[in-house]
Amino acid sequence: MSFDKETLFRLLPAFDRIRDHELANATPEGTEDGPIKALLGLMAEQMGALEENLDQLYDDQFIETCAAWVVPYIGELVGARGLISFPDEPFSQRAQVANTIGYRRRKGTAAVLEQLARDVTGWNANVVEYFQLLATTQYMNHIRPENLSMSGLRNWEMMEYVNTPFDKLARTVDVRRIESRRGKYNIPNIGVFLWRLDAYSSIKSPAYKVDALRYKFDALGKDTALYNMPEVEAQISHLAGPANVPMPISRLVMKHSLDRYYGAEKSVLVYQDGQPVDAFPDSPPQSPPANASSRICICNLSDTDDASGNWINMPDNKIAIDPVLGRIAFPASDPPTTVHVNYHYGFSDKTGGGDYGRSQSFSAELDDIRIIKVPDDMTSISDAVAELELTGGVVEITDNDYYIETPHINIAAGKKIELRAADAMRPVLVLADDWLIFGGSEAEVIMNGLLISGACLRLPASNGSGIPNRLHSLDVRHCTLPPGNSQAIEDVAAQPAQPRLVVQMPGVTIHVERCIIGSIRANDEARMRISNSIVDAGDEKEIAYSGVSTKIGAPLTVENSTIIGRVATRIMELASNTIFFAAPKRLPGDKPPVEAQRLQEGCVRFSYVPPSSRLPRLHRCQPANESDATRVRPQFNSLVYGKAAYCQLSQHCAIEIRQGSDVESEMGAFHNLYQPQREINLRTRLNEYLRFGLEAGIFYGS
Predict the structure, then answer these.
(1) Rounded to whole angstroms, how far apart are CA atoms 475 and 446?
(2) 3-state secondary structure 221-262
(3) Is the separation of the CB atoms in 178 and 191 below 8 Å?
(4) Among candidates 88, 86, 93, which has minimal Cα distance to 118?
(5) Per the domain annotation, does 92 fall within a domain?
(6) How far is residue 502's CA from residue 644's CA, in Å, rounded to a whole number?
(7) Among 207, 350, 345, 185, which Cα is nearest to 695's?
(8) Mean pLDDT of 48-52
């Protein structure tokens, strides 16, 4: 029974209800509730809290529904070991506690080890038993026909997966230990492969137009590898295959398994003029026959060697897709008017603009003022922003399309505007000119979930009439302002690399959170805070952060971030768990790679700081001494924006960087993934489920 105010009030005699209503109307304020009803409201509120608590106590008896703090206690009851939790961890211990009994029933099998790895780390996993892949003399009663000492070069699938976790070629014995990741192929060896990169979707986003027949999947015109959407494994006894983990899709694999990867609710789909392109228009959509004619062909669409900018293998009568480069080519007989695409791309975390859930970062208090949806309520972002400048509120973009406009903001004093993409959306704003943000005293602006191409965000010191800009704060959350050059998009011309955030006004507070952004210029009287973000000047020798009219930027607070390029700030108020990846000072007259003007204030802790930097006293930073400078310099798998492994630390990176933060996680933008802790948790649990005499090694598939 629900004990709400109205229910309790209806239980009173009619005379008391009438009298209470008369007393309510007799008060000067004319309140809605009389004294009895108001009292019952307070009682109902407390009853509701008690009822909710009782429901939660019941839910806490089950691992599927219990609160997070109850998980270790249930784990203790079933004897689950190694339950280590971390603040804001992106992985849960709930799954491994729930499956503990199932683990023990199948203890020692490869399927259990694989499920254990998934549950403990939260990553996709695959387990390989290397004794099955040894080139040995076989026992005639248990012949393995697929385990041949000589490799069949005609077996395209076997050749495609060479040197991957799904490599099935037989090898000779390697006696080096697998735990140190040096040897693999030996009788007692078990390989546990983990995929640190995940596949993120981009649904019905605009394809970048190269010309009338050529398009790219990436809306900004970058070549990007297409990833498969991992298929969920329904049973604990199933071993993962290539379709169950987030991997780049190769040309051969997609060609031979087109029906698995292409189509609605699959990894890739092309929309031509608003309609999805059916790969097998004359066959059943779920199970096309092997000889069915396809409207889609998979081929290599690389650039030609003549430097003309053309692509090889342009199709004659089909739509060609290159999953390695992320390119689409249409036949000359069927040119499209518009092209949209569904695809998946690889990345380490939910950072920057993307089609992932961000509802917890929304400003809920603004929803009660007004929400204008674009393009549902208004077609233009500029018009929607202008409508809210005097009242404040939310402008919410509900699709993933291009918006070719420059929506300047001039918000009234004391008001607040949030310009955001709807949850799980990533619209693309293409700026032909600088986006000017202006506001009165105590005004606030929030941007959330946007991909912004071209020009920059600029906070001018004054408007065209000379009125000073008094904006209080600008919050940029889950946005991407891509570093480097901007490609031409529709009527907006290509633009060279430039700072993506320019703060000319003093006194404003800027917060950049979970963003990927180019270089920043900030007035030395403003304040800047950067957290869980990547700031990329494009090269370690370029300037990533500095002032506007002077070389010294605003006081800086930076946490859990990666900054590529040189930094110059008035005060380094706090730098924590951050990688400053800048070229070290070469000549005596060179500027320090990371410089703070005032050395009496601020703190730099648990960060990588290039040698010869000029900063306040360092606390447990790297390199610890001159002799370690070369060894501990961070190594990345890629520093090219748009690549799946962008700013991901290499496994060859020094342990002082990979486990050098204040909680022994990695430094940099992916600190909160707690990757070292995931691996340690897995190593702790593996020994319990390995058969006697076996040894496991942990490797990374991505």
Answers:
(1) 5
(2) CCCCCCECCCCCCCCCCCCCCHHHCCCECCHHHHHHCHHHHE
(3) yes
(4) 93
(5) no
(6) 28
(7) 185
(8) 80
Residues 693 and 628 in one domain: no
Considering just the CA atoms, what is the radius of gyration of the chain in Å?
Answer: 29
Same domain, 558 and 577: yes
Whether 352 maps to a domain, the answer reads: no
**CB of 666 closer than 8 Å to CB of 660:** yes
Measured between alpha carbons, how far is 530 from 150 in angstroms, rounded to an integer? 55
Tally of structural domains, the chain: 4
> Is residue 690 a contact partner of residue 189, using CB atoms and an 8 Å limit?
no
Tens of pLDDT, residue by residue over 6-41, are 777 778 888 777 777 777 776 555 556 778 878 887
Whether 494 contacts 540, CB under 8 Å: no
Q: Same structural domain for residues 245 and 343?
A: yes
Tally: H helices and E strands in the chain: 14, 39
Length of the chain counted residue by residue? 702
Q: Are residues 514 and 446 in the same domain?
A: yes
476 φ/ψ angles, rounded to the nearest 5 degrees: -115, 115
Q: Of 82-86, 259-263, 538-542, 661-665, which gets the smallest average pLDDT?
A: 82-86
Strands of the sheet with 435-439, listed across from one edge: 409-411, 435-439, 457-459, 501-503, 520-522, 543-546, 566-569, 594-596
Give, in degrees to the nearest 5, the angle at Cα 490 between 485 and 491: 90
pTM for the whole thing?
0.87
Q: Where are the beta strands (DSSP E) in 299-352?
A: 319-322, 327-329, 339-347
Closest CA to 62 of 51, 52, 53, 74: 74
Give tens-digit pLDDT for 560-601: 999 999 999 999 999 999 999 999 887 777 889 999 999 999
Strand blocks (E) in 130-197: 189-195
Alpha-carbon span 690 to 106, nearest angstrom: 11
The residue that leads in pLDDT, 667 or 163, is 667
Q: If we measure between CA atoms, which residue out of 512, 498, 508 comes closest to residue 472?
A: 508
94 contacts 122 by C-beta, under 8 angstroms: no
- Scan for tokens 């140190």, then name that residue: 180
Q: How many CB atoms lie within 10 A of CB 664?
A: 13
Check pLDDT > 70 for residue 234. no
Q: Which residue type, as a one-letter code, is found at position 640?
A: V
Domain assignment of residue 226, yes or no: yes
- DSSP letter for 158, please: H
Amino acid at 519: S
Sign of CA dihedral 373, 378, 379, 383: negative
Q: Is 607 exposed, middle or buried (0-12, 13-18, 19+ CB in 10 A)?
A: buried
Fill in the amino acid letter for 129: E
In the predicted model, is pLDDT for residue 374 greater than 60? Answer: yes
Q: Residue 528 is which amino acid?
A: M
Which residue, among 325, 342, 347, 324, has the nearest Cα to 201 in the 3D structure?
Answer: 342
Q: Do 54 and 30 reside in the same domain of the chain?
A: yes
Mean of pLDDT over the chain = 87
Domain boundary among 294, 319, 347: 347
Q: Are residues 176 and 294 in the same domain?
A: no
Q: Which residues are within 8 A (CB) of 40 and not within 5 positions of it... i.e. 6 or more apart? A: 5, 8, 9
pLDDT tens track for 68-82: 778 877 777 777 766
Q: How many CA atoms lie within 13 A of 503 on its CB side?
A: 31
**Which residue range is the domain that position 30 belongs to?**
5-59
Nearest to 483 by CA among 422, 533, 423: 533
Give the pLDDT score at 237.
Answer: 67
Mean pLDDT across 211-218: 94
Are 197 and 347 a contacting pair, CB within 8 Å? yes
